[in-house]
Amino acid sequence: MTQLHTDVIIVGGGPAGLLLAIELGRRQIRTILFDQDCSTTINPQANATQARTMEHYRRLGFANEVRTQGLPPNYPTDIAYFTTFSGYELARFQLPSADEAKDLIKNMSGSWSAAELPHRVSQMYVEQVLHRQATRLKSVALRYQHEVTKVIDNIDHVEATVVTDKFTFVVSAQYLIGCDGPRSTVRKHLGITMEGETNKKRDFVGGYMHAVYLKGKHLYDAINGDPAWMHVNVNHRRRCFLAAIDGKSEFVFHTQLKSGEDKDNISEIQTRNMFAECMGKSVDFDIINRSSWTAGFTLVAEKLSVDRIFLAGDAAHLFTPTGGLGYNTAIEDAVNLGWKLAAVIKKWGGSRLLDSYQMERHPSAVRNTNYARGFAESLGSFKPKPELEAHTSEGSKLRAEASDYFNRHGREEFNIPGITFGNRYDGSPIIVSDGSEPPPDRANMYQPTACPGGRAPHLWLQNTTGKTTSLYDQFGFEFTLLCFDGGDKNIMGPLTSAAKSAELLLSVVNIAGEEARELYQSNFALIRPDQIVAWRGDQLPEEPEKIIRTLTGK
Ligand SMILES: Cc1cc2nc3c(=O)[nH]c(=O)nc-3n(C[C@H](O)[C@H](O)[C@H](O)COP(=O)(O)OP(=O)(O)OC[C@H]3O[C@@H](n4cnc5c(N)ncnc54)[C@H](O)[C@@H]3O)c2cc1C
Does the first or last residue of the chain, that is N or C, have fewer Cβ atoms within 10 Å of its Cβ? Predict the structure, then answer.
């Protein structure tokens, strides 16, 4: 058996693995990613890229590339609720097209003070972009049709046994990250168990789901009302959701199986009948792919790391996909771990940086899985009566009630700035608290705050030529010191020297104007590579070495 050596082995090339490879590759860390499949996913899977994920893609320089993927640029991303898709439209939450989103965000404030709005796009397209980006990085190697069958954690290195159809070999590395999805081989090798709720039964999004990726020229003719991105049906016979994939002819259809329907044994005729039942009429379509999955998990791994091995993404937490949080939480794991691993490998980061991964990301996974469970309860516990579809006064009354319910539910599940921007790392050993209290955690409301431990508040800046730029575009790739006091650069000396001695890359950025100072409620703020406020103050620290030691986890 041959033996190779690298800095980091990533097992799994889904969103978590690919983004981690990009974060490491951008920092010139030698990384090999192994995936057992022959390519990125060919199934649509996740359909929503949240605004915070888009902000990370912007930081990495490819948010615009992602925003061009999927639906046509002028296609609205509404969520619409129907009895059947050719029947009554009950409720609709209107959301902008990709083209509108780019401009709209520049005029939004409050909860939506952000550099990016969400993008409704299938994971299949996002993974293609992530793959393209990762292949451009010299220190990253992507190896498909390579299955990792065994991992060993030694004191000073890790080893992975890799199997292809031709040979078996061992790779050693400083660190190994299991981004290998829900059935994670890495997690099983570590003996880590998942904690939380399994197989919760609900009338909808609680049980076996049948997923069909399909294509049909006349599907849009059969669906009532204006185009939407997500279609959800509500009737007593069969519940489903139907997401538009390309805005022309492709959709993904997910319906919950009823008792007596065997998830491993559904004939094509049964699939077609299920679809017709949800459409309210029979429509011709081609099946691209069929699969099944289980809704009803709210699970988080008891630990996200053991020594030199870490878990990220679905290997570390399992969601019911309501709220569209699984892939987005996976991305945030990769962002959090990427800069820390690179810092430790480059030796400017200390061991507490890696310890902080568990402390920061475990509570985030518990928080996000619980939000998803709440949305599943709300969606799945609505019990449509048979008269909901009747052309009677009782039917009208029930439809009006359902309309109220889903107009409220739609906003709650799909307007979630609080979830996407409001996650916090309070109590982390690499955050310097200033004693201030963060605002309460709410799903649908985000209150910008520079209280250390949360996302840096965003602001649109106007330059002298009148061009609008994002505050985030001013940040350096690693740490950034924001100065809001008019910017006498000479006083930065001790802090920048301390950062330099610690080999921490620190960009100093002066932001003019009272608005930014007001927003940050301080003269200075130190921002981490993942755009989290690590420290703020009106004066620069008297003992900058101490702050730098905290930030670097030493
Ligand atoms: C119907 C549905 C809708 C969803 N909608 C959303 C949504 O709107 N928004 C959202 O955020 N999330 C959504 N999700 C969840 C989302 O798809 C997952 O959370 C996401 O794919 C997790 O990414 P990951 O990289 O952690 O794992 P995965 O995407 O599962 O990738 C794991 C990779 O590891 C590889 N692998 C596994 N074992 C090995 C091994 N031993 N060796 C080598 N390679 C291995 C696999 O081939 C795979 O490529 C949805 C999920 C479903 C089922």
Answer: N
